[in-house]
């Protein structure tokens, strides 16, 4: 058993568990977007950032990936964390103003539309890759992948064509945190 | 088996998402009072590491062999839970999930007590289903013997070579005796590939000389039986006998033949020819000098055919310029196809003086003697090109006769203008049966020679992959497969006809009433065959009708009067319902969802049983037929069963509206909600079933009618068959057929009611007619039928009337 504190509360967990897992087991909520119980964590969205003190210095880590250690001190609601979280949501919601689900999430953390303007209103995909991982790990199909790089990065299928491998199970639809897959689904599936 | 069941129930709070909406403690407390429940606990997040650790620890400590999880979607999460529990010897079918989040908490606006009650009902249903489960462990396959390469296609040689390279024997049935003969035949199946003949000949010689490749004469195939790793193929021998060959896997190499246009209307005698004629001339080395224009025409055959024709024209042009310096070839191709040439090809074309001209396909080129006029898409101007020989494209034809012969004994279907395909299956890889019937060649999809050879090579690799898997002991059958009770099977073959996966086959070779069995490795577990079996001899292992019945029986008494039983297919209906939760939509809590793998697996007796046991309305939601049914025709078959239930409802004096089938796609949650709302409206109009003594008797008779082999037979033959032409729209004799069905149903329903009336004691015909409220002259012939079938006996004569009673066995 590994003992640590989260928000100054004594908690414990097994070696190998992550901060997010231990926090949730003890009823401490940390917001996430790219995390889903069905797939391995990847730390893409950074919304689960928490502040840790491992005895050497205080820093920010992604709680979905950071394994717990004895004596670790974790804060999930410190000013620094709240600021980071607001900024992440601000960026996401400004870049993808079309996503209702992101808007709702942003509102719960008091984030409003800002001076940043997005040219891509329709595009609500935050490129968290949850659909790509779920297609591979849950469905076992692997017809979704990332295409292109940098600002052109996108979730796509081989050759950008409807995938003959896709079985239309809808796993990607179910896990997508922003609803982007709803727009994309019929372009993935070979049968309309 | 039943005594050993040790069930553990794990409820997930999912943060506040579930526990915030219902009283999980109350649900857990109620469930823990049930007999056979060894453990109940509630966890904050079951899917995360701490939850999983607790799940496996508790399952081990309590020696559980059934695990029921009340959490979220089984479509998404079951795999993970099953993987965690596998080391404890708990197989996936022994784990069940009830989706408390997406079927209740997230979609209903009701208060906590109502949701708690509904959650309990659904969990009780799943509990009953798990307790009824008789676990079936997958079967491991052996993989011995050579691969059988049937069909005689060119891709078979590539497969044989690849297999031989990896030390596996193969048996091939070429129509030809030597490589030269193979190549002669090839110009009709893959025209325009003469350029590759030299390489191909070397390959063929290698195959013909290889000791690992056995050659056998090409005899008509009489039957194909057996399963993965052990196939038996019966070949007709000339004096009428059949010889049997055995092999571990089957590769079907099937080509299609190209056709010349019959009654060629362009004229020009031997100066206007098609690609096939040109092949013939090249083979005989009789090529006329001068300008040869390849005109890629036949737009109606599709873009792919035109691309292949353009490639054939290009390759043949190269052969021409290499061998006949006095010939000047030109290829005229439609501008909207993708010319299958690379940069170096274009350089080669310029160097050799081969003209490559695109034409505007919207303006049809015009043929004149010695000239072909076409419109250049770039300058919009009419151009003409002079020809001495005009070559038009060959027309892709039907698959060869060999393919049609194999279609009789293998699950091959023809679709979209003659292309062959295997039974349609779009399942998750871990649900899929082992694919040991591997198809290659242009009979599937038009392709050129290189692609066909590559397909053959890949087919061989698939076989080798199976062999390696078997060597490691990992060639296991899927978890949910159909089995046949040989003592009940009458060998009618209905299952064979509606099977799309090829799992059902005869026990022995021959025609007539041969009992069937199901190869566990080939079966896709769709289960429509089991639901169709007239003698109820088939059972879906690990997902049986009995389980579904138990589940429905457990839920029905816990449902309110105005609620609906929602049978949803796990791909379409369930997917859409869960997507409604994801999208934050809401619908009425009067819909009680029961997921089934495919609606086609629902035996019609389950429907009548539900009405008999208190259901007031049943809504079935499946995938869209043909477009997305994952088991081919499951949802179509369901339609006929639902329709039969409607007839029986009407006969029982109930509204036909009490049952309905809907189609919905996983990405149409709004459609699902509209469907549910509409059905609830229907149900509100008719109200709950008046459960009077008479209605109960009538529903019992309806249920008994569903069990009658004769009714199931007539229902079975009405199912749309994949072997027939696909959904012709105008069904043959649809009305007549339905009326015959109605007559059969009326008779059998009356017979069932008579038997119902006789259970209390013997009666004479007038008394029976009075008890049923039917006319004596309608009852009399049915009584005679029953007497003849020995279902009732004549006890004695009394007051001038015979007194009928039940035979003991009934």
Describe the structure.
The complex is a heterodimer of chains A (about 190) and B (about 800). Chain A has about 190 residues and is of the alpha+beta class. Chain A has 3 domains: about 1-75, Ubiquitin-like (UB roll), CATH 3.10.20.740; about 80-125, no CATH class; about 130-190, Alpha-Beta Plaits. In chain A, about 30% of the residues lie in helices and about 15% in strands. Chain A is built from 6 helices and 7 strands. A 5-stranded mixed beta sheet of chain A has the order 2-1-5-3-4, sandwiched between helices. A two-stranded antiparallel ribbon of chain A has the order 6-7. In chain A, strand 6 and strand 7 form a beta hairpin. In chain A, helix 2 runs antiparallel to helix 3 (about 100-110). The longest helix of chain A is centred in the middle third of the chain and has 17 residues, at about 80-95. The radius of gyration of chain A is 18 Å and the shape is globular. The mean pLDDT of chain A is about 90. In chain B, strands 7-6-5-11-24 form a 5-stranded parallel beta sheet, covered by helices on one side. In chain B, strands 13-20-14-15-16 form a 5-stranded parallel beta sheet. In chain B, strand 15, helix 11 and strand 16 form a beta-alpha-beta unit. The model of chain B is unreliable at about 725-730 (pLDDT under 50). Chains A and B meet through helix 1, helix 5 and helix 6 of A and helix 2, helix 3 and helix 17 of B.
